[in-house]
Amino acid sequence: MARQAPATDPAQDAPEVTAPKHAAAGLPALLHTTQIATAQMGAARSVRTLLKLNQPDGFDCPGCAWPEPEHTHTAEFCENGAKAVAEEATLRRVGPAFFAEHSVADLAERSGYWLGQQGRLTTPMLLDEGATHYTPIGWDAALQLVASELKALDTPDAAAFYTSGRTSNEAAFTLQLFARQFGTNNLPDCSNMCHESSGSALTETIGIGKGSVHLKDLYQADLIIVAGQNPGTNHPRMLSALERAKRAGARIVSVNPLPEAGLERFKNPQNARGLVGAGTKLTDLFLQVRLGGDLALFRALNLLLLEAEDKAPGTVLDHAFIEQHCHGFAEFADDARTTDWDAVAAATGLPEEQIRDLAGMVLESQKVIVCWAMGLTQHKHSVPTIREVVNFLLLRGNVGKPGAGVCPVRGHSNVQGDRTMGIFERPSAAFLDALGTEFRFEPPREHGLDVVDTIRAMRDGRVSVFFAMGGNFVAATPDTPVTEDAMRNCRLTVHVSTKLNRSHVVTGARALILPTLGRTDLDRRAGGPQQVTVEDSMGMVHASRGALKPPAADLLSETAIICGLARRTLGPKNPVPWEDFSADYGNIRDRIARVIPGFEDFNSRIRQPGGFALPHGPRDNRSFPTSTGKANFSVNALTAPEVPPGRLLLQTLRSHDQYNTTIYGLDDRYRGIKDGRRVVLLHPEDAAEHGLAEGGYTDLVSEWTDGVERRAPHFRVVLYPTTRGCAAAYYPETNVLVPLDSTADTSNTPTSKSVVIRFEPDSGPEGAADSAH
Description:
The chain has 33 helices and 33 strands. It is of the alpha/beta class.
């Protein structure tokens, strides 16, 4: 019974609500991990699998990209990592009999949670034009069908190749090589929706779109600012690092519209103090900022640092660093001195005294790290916000020295590696030159389509073949009805997947599901058992080796699928040795080593326990590969979201029982929500002002300049200690509220953390069912 998937879709519209927690992990996390793992994998398989997770001779967690420490613990995983593994290593199976029983129309009525709980996909499946059911298709026929559709296109740019952040380096490299050999840079990826703003801002200011710290830097820091991030749910292993930093003397500041249990207190389940004791208090100062107020906060901090320097010349700013390594300081400083405190208060909602308290902590600290996630990256002004964070760090030389730096915390396990491998719609000329030289072809130079532009292109008929390497594109993207209509406008949609999701039931005229091996599965090719590699959030590259028997004997890896498709599409005269790549991934790594700087002697270096670090000029030697050759100060106008009277600002977020669009369960333990997802978290005074009572139901309606009504019906009101004027609700249920054209300047990232909403009378559970899929 424990291994059976739910036969019916559980109700999600009547959650139980209790008070939010004030500590994360501890014994409940351990018990829940055991429960989930056993239900999906069984007891013996759970032990065998989890002991290989994040170990030097095992496999990398398919969840988040937080780096592994020194592999000193046999249980080097968190609760959500164990959930991710259990979902992938489940004993549940979805084969041809399942699809014969369930029509696409039937599956379209199911929730994403129910679809994911059915188990691992085992057989390539085709939904033919006009058909009601998916039917089995052989591998050769499936790949030939895709190749034929691609070759029939009028232009290569009529195809788009999407990549999930769980894809390995080897699969990502071969996918981008195939796409560019085919003739397009249409390589949208999940980074477009999350950390593109980070990459844009960091590339402009320090010359490389990645963080500048390693894990050891957190242990050496004097002050760590965690802004717009909830590590207790989204990167739980980060809590262990923060605990270690705290015990080494670091102070921690949390900047967030919501109080988050994981940043209040951490009960480490790997020691007795965490299991039965009080754990470790993490946050020394909590700044409950308004949504989108982070730019104003860091601008105010920079003003205070400049004023402190004026009072004690030569003692506050790192003048030697600024003069030797930075550009644009004078222009930045002149503008920063015009900062208006009334505007800061309006944008942040914070008392000036709190901001001055934080400035005092900064002045007492020689080594400062700023960590952030999507709370900073999904606003219209996200790129200027992150540029202002960099200004803050540059003032006191907190880039390029131990214990200090920028730390964007990525989500999916290899989202950063995918970008390093060339999954990018706007590749550099240097990368294309190296790729073309190595493989004897001229890559396309015209920029391709990111996620938002891909949706527009499918909607408008300019892209008719959509190929997704992992992920759940339909559920992950904004403006759900627009995205779904765009997918239905395609000639062919193809999804390389381990499990069912919403994207499999919102299809083009024809659709293929190509099942693939997961991170936990043994991958045996002609060259023997294979390993792949991933890059974590801090630029460390290491190997991952699956060990479990695959769900089906003929299941192919992502890499093998790409190579097979490339052979059939590009023909026998293509100069790329696709057969050799498919037989032994070491052959791919040899080519990566010759194309991408930092991967020299790739195959040898991944045998090192813990892998190796990629070069990072700003961190390694304070060299900044920007247009000026220095780190760039920037001038950023004090901007914040404008909210009309009678409206609130909504942020979409995850529950504790999900990872991105994968729903593990219906609870959000730390926020006190059980058996439900259609909830909206409101400050009690905001709820009263809008005539909403605890336990009542309401429709959420977003407002934007296009005048289109976007409605998410039947949300239970939960009174919660969030910032006044700010609301929160889970995605993907609220992605329907995010306008496709409401994106961050420069990065084009959807503004999922600043959606203006109003409330309307509840349209009932039937309306919710219509929009819950």
